[in-house]
Structures are given as structure tokens and as C-alpha cells.
């Protein structure tokens, strides 16, 4: 039996019990206490631009249809027929005005409402046996969007999405709002790795320390303008409410010169200046920091980088942005979903080269991807053994033995972004992410009442509640 209290206490001291990266009991706790409560990304609105468009996405074992209904509204519905529980939609994406269950033929509009069922009168006695009116596929308990990103929570009483994201919204804008029209996504690419989901999230939230070792070959072949990967230590790592990440330190120059240095054309820079706040512009133009990788609790990550690409001038680089989700399959397997992100208003040639840069670095066969996964699989395998239960991994980089920080936090005059930031190597982001994980893990899950699928259920006081009352 895993000593849950001991695990949480160790994590809060910056000492990680190694077995948490391959432990079945821990994974079951995560299912109930992390993924059933957090806000989870499911899609971007650009994936369903037209009426009737849909994609099917998962939160662990729960399947959801994300659809734009006939009125243009985005809906997220549990992909289970009200009759016998068959998946209503089997395709991963498409366009449909309605969905028809292949088991017994019940059909639903693309807003979830029951449209028809075979032999309604003969089988049920019509409305007296099953009242079609008002019955819908089960909607996601909570749903909201930010910059076109669609999130759901399985907790009907979840805090508002904007509160959950908190100050990290400041940084999320860099990736998802480079002009007034927002971004569009391509993908996702999807593959599985035999690694624990937490490792990827931790890697992207602040691990600049691995770059000089893990990705040495990428720098040696000249993929990046900077000659030495050690220059990562000149950037900073930050944490803000529910997410954090890393930055690169840019060469001296104006805001325009620094954005051009990472490959953005003048017309895109002008649009960024129109939509970003003065503080967001100051992070780059005044302070000289450019956002790079980041993670939002629990399992959503982003990356921004600017490699050289074959079709561009030899001295030019092309920036790309990727959104990626570490979807847990088990304690030792993760499905990676990776989207390419680009500003809707970017020039078409920029979009094409940026996509090529993304595929080269972080697609399913990308060079960075292969480097990272090799480490993550090995870590997960080693964490399964009995010796791993004796070892607490040291995740205290940036903290002295007396608990003081190796370097002071940046002041508002040094870094205009919200939250707390430190220059140089340190595991500040990883500790914050795991501390939030520990907070969720130690809270007992609340009991969730049953929901009637077209009939009535008996409440705690012995009375019946209708399905309409249950789903309101």
C-alpha cells in the first residue's frame, strides 16, 4: 500500500518518491482527485469552424463530442447513448447535423437533444414511457473557453476557468493571441509513449537544465542560431497561479528588433503590438525575455522556439508554436496529442515554413521529441522497481540547505510578468506543479449524485427527481 501522506510530505519538501512515476495506486488517486476536478483542454475552436463540425476527445476514459451545433454554439457532450450506453459517435472528426447510435438507432441533434428513437410508441408507449422532449446527451459538467481554447471540468462546481488559469493567462496570450483574430491549429498528431504523464508536464514547466545534455546534438548540427545550449541559463523560469514555464534571454535591441530576431515578420510584429498589454510588450522589449516552453496544470504544455529551416535564408530562423497534451493511459503509458499553432493572419509562406519547423523539432518524429522520450521511458521503467520505493529524488535545485533561494526572485522592474521568476537553472516550476498536484491528491473526492437518463432516480430523502432537474 502506498503511504499517501508520506508521498505528499516528501513532495512538499522537494524530495520526490521515485515510484510516483510508475505506481498504480497513485494513478488511481490521480484519476479521482486530479483529472475529475481540474480544467482539461479538449479542443480549439478553429478545429470546428463550421456549423456541424465536431471532434471526439477524451479525459482519461471519458469520451466527449466537441461540436458546433446548428446555431453556431460550441457544445461538449458525453459520448454515450442514453439508452444502453453505446458510443454515439465513433469517428474522430467530421461534420454532422445529428448523431445516430449504431446499437439501437437512437439519434441526437448536434446540440445533444434526442431527435428520434425507433418504435417509440410500440416500445415505450410513446411519451408516457419515455419523454423525448427535454432529453439530451449528458453535457460536460463545466465548460468554458479562453482565446479559443475549449476546456471542460468533470466537477460541476469547478472554480471559473479564468480563476483557475489566474495570472498564467498573461503568458498564455503569447501563444494563443498574436492578433485580434486569434490563432488556428493544425492536428493533432497523436502517438503513445511508455512513460508517465507527469514527466512531460514537468519537463516543459521549467527544465532548462536538461537542454545542454539531452539536446546537444540538435545544437551541434546548427539547427539553432545560438552556438551553445548553455545559454539557456541566461533565461528565467516563472510560475503564475496554475502554470509556469521558461524563457530565453534575447540580445540587446528594441521590441521590434527582438521579435524580428526570433523570426517574426514586420506585419506580425505590428499586430502583436496592437493586442498585447504594455507589460506583455515590456517582458520582451524592455526586459529582453522571450517565452519558450510552459505547462498548465495538470497536463497541458506549450512550446515556442525558432530553429533554422532548410527553405529559408541560411541566416534566418522561423518561430513555431506547439500545444501538447499528456493524456494518461495508465501509470506507465501516455498518449501525446500535439497541435501546431499559428496566427490566423500570418502570411501563408510564414505558416508553411513555421509548420515545417514544428515538424522538424516537435512532431511525432521531431528531433527534440526523440531525445526527450528516450529519457522519459527510461525513467518510467526504473520507477517500477522495488528500489525506487526507497529513493527520494532531489528536486531542490535553486534552494539551499537552509531553505533560502540560490538567487533572489526578479523584481517587477526586472521582469514585467506576473508570478515569481528566477534567472538561471532551478526546479521552481517543477516544484510548484507537483505541489499543486499534492494539493489535489490530499483532498477527498466529493460524492457525485447519479443523473437520470430519461427516467427518474431516487434521491437521498426517498423522493424522485426528473432527468430535467438532474441536468439543469
Strand order of the largest sheet: 12-18-17-16-15-14-13-20
Helix content: 25-40%
Unreliable spans are: 456-472
SSE-based structural type? alpha+beta
Shape: globular
What value does the Rg take, in angstroms?
Answer: 24 Å
Report on the structure:
This protein is an alpha+beta fold and about 475 residues long. It is about 30% helix and about 25% strand. The chain is built from 15 helices and 22 strands. The protein has helices spanning about 5-10, 25-35, 120-125, 160-165, 170-175, 195-205, 210-215, 215-220, 255-260, 265-275, 280-285, 350-360, 365-380, 430-440, 465-470, and strands spanning about 15, 40-45, 55-60, 60-70, 75-80, 95, 100, 105-110, 115, 140-145, 150-155, 185-195, 235-240, 245-250, 290-295, 300-305, 320-330, 335-345, 390-395, 420-425, 455-460, 465. The strands form six sheets. Strands 12-18-17-16-15-14-13-20 form an eight-stranded antiparallel beta sheet, sandwiched between helices. It has a four-stranded antiparallel beta sheet with strand order 5-4-3-6, with no helix packed on it. A three-stranded antiparallel beta sheet has the order 2-11-10. Helix 1 packs antiparallel against helix 14 (about 430-440), helix 6 packs across helix 14 (about 430-440) and helix 9 packs across helix 11. The longest helix is centred in the last third of the chain and has 16 residues, at about 365-380. The chain is globular, with a radius of gyration of 24 Å. The chain starts with a helix and ends with a helix. Mean pLDDT is about 90; it is low at about 455-470.
Amino acid at each position: 500500500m502506498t503511504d499517501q501522506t508520506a508521498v505528499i510530505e516528501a513532495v512538499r519538501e522537494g524530495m520526490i518518491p521515485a515510484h510516483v512515476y510508475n505506481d498504480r495506486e497513485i494513478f488511481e488517486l490521480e484519476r479521482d482527485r486530479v483529472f475529475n476536478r481540474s480544467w482539461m483542454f479538449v479542443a480549439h475552436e478553429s478545429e470546428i469552424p463550421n456549423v456541424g463540425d465536431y471532434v471526439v476527445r477524451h479525459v482519461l476514459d471519458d469520451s466527449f463530442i466537441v461540436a458546433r451545433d446548428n446555431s453556431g454554439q460550441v457544445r461538449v457532450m458525453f459520448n454515450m447513448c442514453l439508452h444502453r450506453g453505446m458510443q454515439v459517435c465513433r469517428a474522430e472528426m467530421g461534420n454532422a447535423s445529428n448523431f445516430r447510435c449504431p446499437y439501437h438507432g437512437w439519434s441526437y441533434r448536434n446540440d445533444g437533444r434526442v431527435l428520434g428513437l425507433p418504435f417509440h410508441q410500440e416500445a415505450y408507449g410513446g411519451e408516457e414511457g419515455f419523454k423525448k422532449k427535454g432529453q439530451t446527451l449528458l453535457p460536460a459538467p463545466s465548460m468554458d473557453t479562453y482565446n479559443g481554447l475549449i476546456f471542460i471540468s468533470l466537477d460541476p462546481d469547478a472554480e471559473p476557468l479564468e480563476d483557475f488559469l489566474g495570472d498564467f493567462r498573461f503568458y498564455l496570450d503569447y501563444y494563443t493571441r498574436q492578433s485580434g483574430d486569434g490563432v488556428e491549429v493544425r492536428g493533432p498528431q497523436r502517438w503513445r509513449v511508455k512513460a508517465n504523464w507527469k514527466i512531460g508536464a514537468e519537463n516543459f514547466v521549467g527544465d532548462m537544465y536538461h537542454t545542454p545534455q539531452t539536446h546537444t546534438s540538435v545544437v551541434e548540427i546548427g539547427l539553432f542560431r545560438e552556438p551553445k545550449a548553455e545559454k539557456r541559463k541566461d533565461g528565467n523560469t516563472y510560475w503564475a497561479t496554475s502554470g509556469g514555464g521558461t524563457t530565453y534571454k534575447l540580445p540587446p535591441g528594441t521590441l521590434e528588433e527582438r521579435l524580428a530576431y526570433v523570426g517574426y515578420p514586420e506585419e506580425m510584429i505590428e499586430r502583436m503590438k496592437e493586442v498585447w498589454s504594455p507589460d506583455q510588450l515590456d517582458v520582451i522589449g524592455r526586459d529582453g525575455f522571450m517565452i519558450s516552453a510552459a505547462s498548465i496544470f495538470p497536463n497541458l504544455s506549450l512550446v515556442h522556439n525558432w530553429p533554422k529551416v532548410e527553405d529559408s535564408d541560411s541566416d534566418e530562423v522561423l518561430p513555431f508554436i506547439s500545444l501538447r497534451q499528456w493524456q494518461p493511459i495508465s501509470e506507465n503509458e501516455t498518449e501525446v496529442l500535439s497541435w501546431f499553432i499559428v496566427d490566423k493572419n500570418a502570411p501563408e509562406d510564414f505558416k508553411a515554413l513555421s509548420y515545417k519547423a514544428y515538424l522538424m523539432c516537435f512532431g511525432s518524429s521531431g528531433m527534440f521529441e526523440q531525445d526527450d522520450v528516450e529519457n522519459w521511458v527510461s525513467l518510467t521503467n526504473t520507477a517500477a522497481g522495488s528500489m525506487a520505493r526507497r529513493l527520494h529524488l532531489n528536486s531542490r535545485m535553486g534552494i539551499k540547505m537552509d531553505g533560502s533561494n540560490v538567487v533572489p526572485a526578479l523584481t517587477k522592474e526586472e521582469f514585467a510578468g506576473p508570478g515569481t521568476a528566477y534567472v538561471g537553472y532551478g526546479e521552481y516550476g517543477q516544484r510548484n506543479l507537483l505541489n499543486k498536484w499534492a494539493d489535489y491528491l490530499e483532498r477527498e473526492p466529493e460524492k457525485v449524485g447519479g443523473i437520470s437518463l430519461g427516467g427518474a432516480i431516487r434521491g437521498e430523502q426517498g423522493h424522485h427527481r426528473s432527468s430535467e432537474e438532474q441536468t439543469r
